[in-house]
Hints:
Elements: E1 7-13, H1 18-32, E2 38-44, E3 57-63, H2 66-73
Antiparallel strand pairs: 1-3, 2-3
Amino acid sequence: MKENIPAYVIGHIKVKDAEKWAEYRSQVPATLAPWGADLVCRGKRLGILSGEHHYPDMVVIRFPDSDSVSNWFY
């Protein structure tokens, strides 16, 4: 029996057009629902503990398993 282990998609985002980003962002939840995914967090970077990170925004999405991620993405 295959064990379902949650899988996460982490997106690093640099918004170039706020209007287009808002339109895209509003459509994402509907694409996640069929795959049982949850938006864990989405927001601005608060700080960097070590190294460099050039993306001011991020998103974390939790899926029930890696197959769900693949089916959603492709």
